[in-house]
């Protein structure tokens, strides 16, 4: 087992990528603090995972959330080996429609809460010589026109990851980031329906967007994350890893 007895905090773990990662962490022998905002969804995830999982409901828009999440992990498992900053919101606005309130909400939840969760967990990560895995996005390099605030938040996460990696490498606490491409989560499916695509739209995509012909799944992404949470990825830190079905730099067609 690649994560035997490791305790991992995962934000946004009641659905999508976070949920899939929580399942794989437990399958690899770890324990997981499942964070989310939907209590019923979280209870279902924890019930499935059993004693190796504990639930923390906290709104990342609340400045008290990071300390609450860390306290919940320590109360449940007594230590922290890894933090996965996965939770994020994306509100589609081009610049003319973007409001200060929407921008602040996106930056707070996607970036600020991640930074202060790391800060709250850092004393425990120093004790365990643990790691942080940030879940970014290929939109960090430029992004879709309607994902302006989201793209800015993910670009900031990349700089945060590199800065902290360089700061804490001497303490053997590692910071890495994965930039997922287009992943078929339930939220993504619903978002594209809302934007006007038909039911079953993933089956109609052309090879320019999905070269393999099949969209990547949360489970596939979660499998890739396990390496970065385990000791087998030591001593590597400060890595930005793009995971998509094509090269990212210079190529990001509108979806």
- Widest β-sheet, arrangement of strands: 3-2-1-4-5-6-7
**Mean pLDDT over all positions:** 95
SSE string: EHEHEHEHEHEHHE
Through-space gap between termini: 38 Å
Number of helices: 7
Spans of at least 5 consecutive residues with low confidence: none
Q: SS-based structural class?
A: alpha/beta
CATH class of the largest domain: Alpha Beta
CATH fold name of the largest domain, please? Rossmann fold
Which strand-content bin applies to the residues?
5-15%
The CATH architecture of the largest domain can be given as 3-Layer(aba) Sandwich
Question: Care to describe what's here?
Answer:
This protein has 7 helices and 7 strands. With 255 residues, it is an alpha/beta fold. It has 2 domains: 197 residues, Rossmann fold (3-Layer(aba) Sandwich), CATH 3.40.50; 29 residues, no CATH class. α1 links the parallel β1 and β2. α4 runs parallel beside α5. The radius of gyration is 18 Å and the shape is globular. The N and C termini lie far apart (38 Å). The mean pLDDT is 95.
């Amino acid at each position: 087992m690649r994560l035997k007895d490791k305790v991992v905090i995962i934000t946004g773990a009641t659905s999508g990528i976070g949920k899939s990662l929580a399942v794989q962490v437990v399958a690899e022998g770890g324990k997981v603090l499942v964070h989310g905002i939907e209590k019923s969804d979280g209870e279902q995830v924890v019930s499935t995972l059993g004693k190796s999982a504990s639930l923390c409901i906290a709104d990342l828009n609340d400045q008290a959330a990071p300390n609450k999440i860390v306290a919940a992990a320590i109360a449940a498992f007594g230590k922290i080996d890894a933090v996965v900053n996965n939770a994020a919101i994306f509100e589609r606005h081009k610049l003319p429609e973007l409001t200060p309130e929407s921008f602040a909400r996106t930056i707070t939840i996607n970036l600020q809460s991640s930074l202060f969760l790391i800060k709250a967990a850092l004393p425990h990560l120093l004790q365990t010589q643990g790691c942080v895995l940030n879940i970014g996005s290929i939109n960090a390099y430029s992004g879709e026109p309607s994902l302006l605030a989201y793209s800015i938040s993910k670009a900031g996460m990349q700089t945060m990851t590199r800065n902290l990696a360089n700061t804490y490498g001497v303490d053997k606490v590692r910071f890495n980031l994965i930039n997922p491409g287009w992943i078929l989560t339930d939220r993504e499916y619903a978002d594209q329906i809302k934007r006007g695509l038909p039911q079953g739209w993933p089956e109609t995509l052309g090879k320019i967007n999905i070269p393999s012909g099949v969209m990547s799944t949360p489970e596939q992404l979660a499998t890739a994350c396990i390496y970065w949470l385990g000791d087998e990825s030591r001593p590597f830190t400060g890595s930005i890893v793009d995971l998509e079905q094509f090269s990212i730099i210079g190529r990001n067609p509108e979806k």
